[in-house]
Amino acid sequence: MESPTSSNSSGHFSLFRNGPQNGEYIKSNKNISLSYPEGSNTFQQGQLGDNDTFLAGTLHLNYSKSCQVKSVYLHLKGVEKTSWQRSQARQKSVFTGEHTLVDQTNKIWEAFDDSEEVTLLDIPFKVQLPYNLPDTITTEIGSVKYVLRVTVNTKALLGSQQSVKLYCPLRRTITLDAQHLPPFKLSGQTPSGIDYIFLLPPNKIFNVSSYVSIPMKLRFLNPNIGVERVEVYLRTSMDFQSSTQGETKHVDQKIIGMIVSRSELLYAQPTSSSHYGECTHTLNLYIPKNVQPTHQGRFISIGHFISINFFLWGFESDYRVEESIRINHVIEKYPPQNSPNSQIQQAQQIQQIQ
């Protein structure tokens, strides 16, 4: 039966639903289950950030005999949390930090009268989330987690509340107009006399679970210098705070890396007297699905960097350059057509850079 505070509910009950499996519930109840909206594998609708974002789905009640139900509530709690240990001599200290990001309760159904008899009932719901919630984050030391709890209030002498609880991962997505934004030009000159240019994605944003192509050009300003290889890798820098003043923990992790040997570089003759030749290459890096997104919170800070190491011959010292980047879930506003000429176009693009 529908109430003024609920979405349209019905008595239809389906045995085949797309929703969390039994093992995904932190706390389960045989009479209560949830399903995602049709065609989705998440309760989240929207991109977080400054956009309107909702939790949507359907709550299913299934009782073997009629139950007097008074009301149903949906509660979402999101927490940023850190915890680590430090051993010194025979003592072990534990440092923790915790910050509540959202603590929101919504009534999604209530009886017209004091209670209603329910055997099978589906209750669609759609509730708005606060703006600028961060992604779900999972590391060994800190996390951002969201827990969804459903509470069914019943009219009974014993056990007047029934509930289920489960994790509700959220993903923040950035919409990028890559076709109309120029690539970020990472350029400079080594002390030994190599001009370098690397074209990073617009705004230096790397997309999770996708390939990133980075055209590069090296120009030799001295006659007796060359490149043995170029090593490129991405690293994550994580800083964790605790509620104890001054107690922090820092973790560096290498995400991915690749080596470009001298034989892989495409060499060209000098086009002017100002240099002694140049070479080009296109780096293709895959950003793994399990990489944590860039995050700046109260107790957790996650940053990412691209590190480029030049190993030279003709000089004793090598050279390293590093640039901060962002790793996020990205949707392109105007997705490019899949074309085998895309890398050729990138190579042409870097050839035109002076």
Automatic annotation (TrEMBL):
<dbReference type="Pfam" id="PF00339">
    <property type="entry name" value="Arrestin_N"/>
</dbReference>
<dbReference type="InterPro" id="IPR011021">
    <property type="entry name" value="Arrestin-like_N"/>
</dbReference>
<dbReference type="InterPro" id="IPR014756">
    <property type="entry name" value="Ig_E-set"/>
</dbReference>
<dbReference type="InterPro" id="IPR050357">
    <property type="entry name" value="Arrestin_domain-protein"/>
</dbReference>
<protein>
    <submittedName>
        <fullName>Arrestin domain-containing protein C584.15c</fullName>
    </submittedName>
</protein>
<feature type="domain" description="Arrestin-like N-terminal">
    <location>
        <begin position="55"/>
        <end position="155"/>
    </location>
</feature>
<dbReference type="GO" id="GO:0005829">
    <property type="term" value="C:cytosol"/>
</dbReference>
<dbReference type="GO" id="GO:0005886">
    <property type="term" value="C:plasma membrane"/>
</dbReference>
<dbReference type="InterPro" id="IPR014752">
    <property type="entry name" value="Arrestin-like_C"/>
</dbReference>
<dbReference type="GO" id="GO:0030674">
    <property type="term" value="F:protein-macromolecule adaptor activity"/>
</dbReference>
<dbReference type="GO" id="GO:0031625">
    <property type="term" value="F:ubiquitin protein ligase binding"/>
</dbReference>
<dbReference type="GO" id="GO:0070086">
    <property type="term" value="P:ubiquitin-dependent endocytosis"/>
</dbReference>
